[in-house]
């Protein structure tokens, strides 16, 4: 037996062990990263069922370290023994919750409509404004995310005061649309780039107009990307705090502002804050699980030509 054959046989003998070791390392790293990502959610949910003593002592495991209590949910009027009773805190929570739903869904929908049309134009037509071309325009949209929110705080505050949009849902919807529009354009641009132009050309030959080809051919194919962009935009709008705290006072306050206000004379009410945060996380978790298939398809669009 030659030396090369001996080395090949030895490598074949060692390969199963190295394969198992690599798999153990990969899955171990994934489990560790999943733990890091999911532990804050676990801590938030369990803290909503803790008392003050359990929070300060750092108890983590329900029924082992501490006995779950509805104190956090009772403070919001959402516990089983208070859900059917009159509660001003619950009414306040439901109002802030509806504000978050209306502003997030409204801004995300508006951003999807405008962003899809802008992205389609950037992928199907050539523009030339001075030295700006399609790639420069796309980068210009994305570069708007570089600006820190505090730079825009005073201009928007003065503008909204002059036009009467302070403490209104419409004001937040318009601002959130501007905030998420660059991300929507960038996602939809990649989505439309992955769709062959020949499909639209064939539709035009068959007698469809440009708008007909867009709505009947392109949009059904691009639907997963639109869903992914909508979910991402909604998450960003739902979690936005800075402008919601700056531009609202009573009528248009959202859930993040209410969560941050859970302080009392003795400090932060962690159980109430955790219950509020859990209630705020739940809708996004349900939407993400229900639309997971579209989310994955949309985020991976354009990765393979």
UniProtKB/TrEMBL annotation:
It comes from the Bacteria. Keywords: Cell membrane, Membrane, Sugar transport, Transmembrane, Transmembrane helix, Transport. SUPFAM superfamilies: MetI-like. InterPro entries: BP-dep_ABC_trans_perm (IPR050901), MetI-like (IPR000515), MetI-like_sf (IPR035906). It is a multi-pass membrane protein. It is found in: Cell membrane. GO terms for biological process: transmembrane transport. One of its GO terms (cellular component) is plasma membrane. The chain crosses the membrane at residues 24-43, 97-119, 139-160, 172-189, 226-248, 268-291. Signal peptide: none annotated. Residues 97-291 form the ABC transmembrane type-1 domain. Its main location: membrane. Belongs to the binding-protein-dependent transport system permease family. This is Multiple sugar transport system permease protein.
